[in-house]
Structure formats: structure tokens, C-alpha cells
Amino acid sequence: MGDRAIYDLPRWMLAVGPVVVLTAVFGLLYFTSPFGDLSGVDEASTLEIIWMLTVIGSIAGIIPVVIGMLWFPFIRELEPRYLHAFMALAAGVLAFIALEMTEDVFEHAGAAESTSLALALGAGGVTATFAVMYLASRWRQRKMADVEKSGLEIAYLVALALGLHSIGEGLGIGVAYVQGDASLVMLLVLAFVMHNVMEGPTVVAAVARDRETPPLRHFAAMGIIAGGPVILGGWIGSFAQSDVLAALFFGIAIGAILQVLIEVADLIRFDAEAVATPTNTFTFFVGFVLMFLLEDVLTEVLLEGWLVPA
């Protein structure tokens, strides 16, 4: 009864609701400036650092992904062709992230003591992760040959790929935190909140085409898988500031995303005759450009000090 009541709400309310929640969270972070004093970080114990980075990682990773998932009732009610378009938008988001992380691999490799080792680990991470996920996907499809393809499984794969990507975000937060740079920590958190909120609908887009809505525990699990690794990355960044390690993690994430893009295309093809329709192509590029605006343009604005508290 409760679930049905949610779907009976006006469509505009289903679409605008998550934006209101995001605005409230963003405003709370900006005006309270919870990371305004890191002067005592050098004297903090290991346990205190781990706890604070867990809190920061949850704010930057898990919370915005969950907020983005609140769009699920709106996505669920879309017609199949619009749902496919939304999945193509999600693919555009993933493609931008993969391209951006490719640049990150080269940047970290250039800064590493052994550039060749870092590049080799990055390339190995891409290849090994893609191969493992591809073989696992083919095995699963053979086992499910007579069964309808499950969007929930694809959603978990998307969450996993995004989670691997989130480790890189956490690395940046962890390094900034132990350096005592409160402004940079706030900058990264605000940027990642805006960025990661788009990961929520990216995860649940595949689930929306299933006949039945999965239990809430699946949404909670996917939110933790997609956003939780920001915490892990923060821990790594605070205690093991390694460009070689960063290149490896980014490579792993790229490989996972490449495989997920194939899975999303297969999922659309399962319901439709063509994947690259004009509408799907358009929304794919919308997703790509949207992430460019949120990630690069927003970060530049924050770096100029427009939104960073004094």
C-alpha cells in the first residue's frame, strides 16, 4: 500500500523530490562547514582519523548515491523507449567517468617514481578486470539462457563499477585531510556530492525495467557498494599516498565500467530492436556532457572560491 501510494504521487513531485533533498544536504554542508578546522589532524590518533574519514566518505559517497536513487519511482513509470533513453543517459555518465579516469591513470603514472610500473599496473587493472567480469557475465548468461535477463544483476554490476571508481575519489579526500587542508576537503566533498548524486539513477535505471520492484535491502546494498568505497579510498589516501596504487585502482575501475557498458547495451537490446536509436544516442551524450559540467566545470567554480566558505 505504501509503495503504491508513492507511485500515485504527481510525476513532477517524483522528479523534483530528490532535488529538494539534495539542495537541503548541500546547503547544510555549505553553511555549517563541518570540516572547517583540521589544525589538530597531526596529533589525531589513527582511530580518530579513520572515524572522521568514514564520516566524510559517507557524506561524499553513500548519501548522494542514495539521494539519486530516490528518482526510482519516477524512472519506474517511464514508457519502455524513455526507460531505454534513461539507461543510455546512465551509459553516458559511465563513459565520461571512464574517460576521466584514463586521464587520471596517466597523471598518477607521470607522478610516480616508476612511470612504467604504474602504467603497467593501470593497463593490467583494465585488462584483468574486464576479462574477469566479461567471463563471469558470459557464464551467467549461459546459466540464464532460458530465463529473462535480470535488470537487478546489471544494477549490481553498475554499482560495483561505480564503487571501484569511488575509491579514487576517496584517495583525494584522504590526502587532503591528512594535509590539514580544510578548504580542499570541503571542495572535494561538495563536488563529489553533486557528482555522485547522478550515480543513484545510473544504478537503478536497469532495475526499473524489471516487472517487480526488489526489496529495499537491495537498494541499500547497491548504495553502499557504489558510494561506500569513498570511505576505503579515504583510508588508503591518508595512510598510503601512492601514485602507483592510485593508477592500479583507476585501471580496475575503467575495466569494470567498460564491461558494464556492454551489459547496459545488451539489456537495451533485450527489449528493443536497436540500441543506438536517435533518442538513445542523444541521451547518451546528455549524460556525458552533464557529468562534464558537474565534474569539471563545477570543480573549477569551487576552486575559484565561489562556493568555498571563508
Automatic annotation (TrEMBL):
Sorted keywords for this record are: Membrane, Transmembrane, Transmembrane helix
Q: Which GO terms describe its cellular component?
A: membrane
Q: Does the keyword Membrane apply?
A: yes
PANTHER family this protein is in? ZINC TRANSPORTER ZUPT, ZINC/IRON TRANSPORTER
TM stretches of this protein: 12-31, 51-75, 82-99, 119-136, 156-178, 184-207, 219-238, 244-262, 274-294
Per its UniProt entry, which superkingdom is the organism in? Archaea
Name of the protein in its database record: Divalent heavy-metal cations transporter
Which GO terms label this protein's molecular function in UniProt? zinc ion transmembrane transporter activity
